[in-house]
Amino acid sequence: MHLFDQDISLTRKGPFVFKGNISSNWSVNGTPNGGYLMAMLTNAMVKCSDKKETPIITANYISKSVPGEADILVEKVAQSTQFTRLQARLIQNGVERIRVTGTFAEEKNECFLIRYESPPLDIRSPEECIEIPSVPNFTILDNTEMRLDPECTGWMEGNPSDRSELKGWIRHREKRDFDLFSTFSCTDSFPPPIMASQGMLAWVPTIELSINVRNIPKTTWLKCIFRTRFVNCGLLEEDGEVWDENNELVSISRQIAQFRTVKT
Question: Of the ranges 138-142, 194-198, 201-205, which one carries the lowest mean pLDDT score?
């Protein structure tokens, strides 16, 4: 079993109750990555849903999760011919840490129109991009390979950009085909794009994250772009696009996060 599959695996304790173990293998400065946690919660909802296609998952991160045992409680919110809507809550040590809502579509829902008014990403090849090096206590980098386009890596050498944008490539280090769950994780694995303009001193804890998976990729690499345009009142937004190597849209995302600079 691939490490990622092991780390999102669940034991069913009841029709809508699951137990899992949050791993330390996908952490950012010691805190489990939000996309990884979303994958675990989505795994629970999928097990309770009669529909599986093009899910829209929105997570509210209420308090900090830590590696260790967790309970996931799933509830059906509404069901129709086209959509099934569920809610899931992650509980640790008796405290609700994350609450997510999920909308899943009918599997036979046909795609009548494919229209991309924004062109697929123009990114240099993975071989031309710069790999984000391993950093102590950032275990997500030990298990996920991320390479940034050279035009947005100045911040890594103390030369920030005037634009908060990061683009590049991502894949698991240990070979694994992409599926629904790994797509959620990879959509939230890149560094916050605000770092491109503000450098390494940014502290950006997620408040809310919404991801819509449009296609399950069938390529080795995924290419991504994440942008922040507005920072005020201690908040920022992060908009993301993920594409496969065939220029098919994989997922779109919107994140709201806190922004503070870390005093040195």
Answer: 201-205
What pLDDT, on the 0 to 100 scale, is given for residue 260? Answer: 77
Domains and CATH numbers, the chain: 3-107+123-261 (2.40.160.210)
C-alpha count within 13 angstroms, C-beta hemisphere, residue 226: 25
**Phi, psi at 203, each rounded to 5°:** -115, 120
The residues near 169 (Cβ < 8 Å, ≥ 6 apart) are 123, 126, 129, 146, 147, 221, 222, 223, 224
Angle formed at CA 185 by CA 179 and CA 190, multiple of 5 degrees = 130
| Exposure string for 128-146, b = 16+ CB within 10 A, e = fewer | ebeebeeeeebbbbebbbb
> How far is the CA of 107 from the CAs of 24, 51, 212, in angstroms?
34, 6, 15
Among the listed residues 156, 114, 151, 139, the one whose alpha carbon sits nearest the alpha carbon of residue 225: 151
Q: What is the pLDDT of residue 110?
A: 66
Average pLDDT over residues 76-90: 96
Query: For residue 231, which amino acid is it?
Result: V
Residue 65 contacts residue 97 (beta carbons within 8 Å): yes
β-pair partners for 22: 68
Question: Residue 153 above 90 pLDDT?
Answer: yes
